[in-house]
Amino acid sequence: QERRAENGFALVDDVDPQKQAHDFRWGEVQKTMYIFLNKPKSSFGARIWASVDIFVILCSVINLVVESYGNKNRNPGDTNTPYFFVDATCVTFFTVDIILRCLVAPDIRNFFKKPLNWFDFLAIMPF
Fold first, then answer.
1. Chain segment 59-111, per-residue pLDDT in tens
2. How far apart are CA 111 and CA 68, in angstroms?
3. Alpha carbons 10 and 97: distance in angstroms, whole number
4. How far apart are alpha carbons 78 and 76 in whole angstroms?
């Protein structure tokens, strides 16, 4: 039977329900980080992380829209603009996020089988 928190959601949904902390490569630390990064309702800190993640996504999208309507006379490769700084900050956050989620995933093969993880990976590649 799948372990569930008091609010009813599965704490580790893409892992064998019988998998215990000792089955994770780094034990309880990895399991705790996995839940923190992938289950926003698991703790207050996880909610904050998920909220920051959404905020960074919104900043990235707004930056892209504003930059595309910005000064048409600027050099596209110019790294001395606020747009570049915002984009670099967002991509850095996304890179750290996907690396952390990959490191704490209980099963690397299952991690790479999920399409959303591929979208996350492809989103940081052009930078």
1. 999 998 988 887 666 676 677 888 889 999 999 999 999 999 998 888 888 88
2. 34
3. 21
4. 6
**What's the rounded Cα separation, in Å, for the pair 50 and 27?**
23
Long-range contacts of 119-125 (CB under 8 A, 24+ apart): 120/94, 123/94, 124/91, 124/94, 124/95, 124/98
* 10, β-bridge pairs: 4
Can you give the pTM of this predicted structure? Answer: 0.73
Q: Exposure pattern of 85-104 as b/e (b: 16+ CB <10 Å)? A: ebbeebbebbeebbeebeeb
Number of helices and strands in the chain (H, E):
5, 0
Instruction: Establish how many alpha carbons lie within 13 A of residue 122's alpha carbon, considering only the half-sphere containing its beta carbon.
Output: 7
Query: Mind spelling out the 3-state secondary structure of 42-86?
Result: HCHHHHHHHHHHHHHHHHHHHHHHHHHCCCCCCCCCCCCCHHHHH
For residue 94, which of 61, 120, 68, 64 has the smallest C-alpha distance?
A: 120
